[in-house]
Amino acid sequence: MPKINGNEIRPGNILEHNGGLWAAVKVDHVKPGKGGAFAQVELKNLRNGSKLNERFRSADKVERVRLEQKDQQFLFETDGMLTFMDSETFDQIALPAELLGERRPFLQDGMTVHIEYFGEEALNVSLPQKVTCKVVETEPVVKGQTAANSFKPALLDNGVRVMVPPFVAQDEDIIVNTETMEYSERA
């Protein structure tokens, strides 16, 4: 694995530090009036989600890790475990549903997701950025209600509540952004 200097750390880099795998979330380069410059790095543990603030001087060496990304298709869920299939080798893998967190309801049958691996260990699951959902319950459309930025609550077919514009009606398909969990556009 390549070693990089402490001042070369960028947000999004995956580092092996203190025996764990960490993602650099925020990096601030600090140049104090006295002493040498350093990088103040906010790290997030990829295995348990804990956070850590660490200082790296330019002379410090850290190991940068490259994760392997694979596209895999979601098959089914049983007992809190999600089963995915590699689209090239047809190998199946079962991962805990907690890996998706609050984005779990947006995972649909047959959906292709990106799974990041460190060796054989799956660390992260990324859903497509936009997913189509059906509105199952919302207030009826009111004529003349065109005030700027007026939104109404809507319940989707996956049980998630989102705010939608007033013109969206019940049984309509909408596109939801899975990163912000907000209404994006009509389908």
Automatic annotation (TrEMBL):
It is found in: Cytoplasm. Pathway: Protein biosynthesis; polypeptide chain elongation. The keyword Protein biosynthesis applies. InterPro entries: Elong-fact-P_C, NA-bd_OB-fold, Rib_uL2_dom2, Transl_elong_fac_P/YeiP, Transl_elong_KOW-like, Transl_elong_P/YeiP_cen, Transl_elong_P/YeiP_CS, Transl_elongation_fac_P. Keywords: Cytoplasm, Elongation factor, Protein biosynthesis. The keyword Chloroplast does not apply. Residues 69-123 form the Translation elongation factor P/YeiP central domain. SMART domains: EFP, Elong-fact-P_C. It comes from the Bacteria. GO terms for molecular function: translation elongation factor activity. Signal peptide: none annotated. Residues 131-186 form the Elongation factor P C-terminal domain. Its main location: cytoplasm. Belongs to the elongation factor P family. Involved in peptide bond synthesis. Stimulates efficient translation and peptide-bond synthesis on native or reconstituted 70S ribosomes in vitro. Probably functions indirectly by altering the affinity of the ribosome for aminoacyl-tRNA, thus increasing their reactivity as acceptors for peptidyl transferase. This is Elongation factor P. It comes from Limimaricola variabilis.
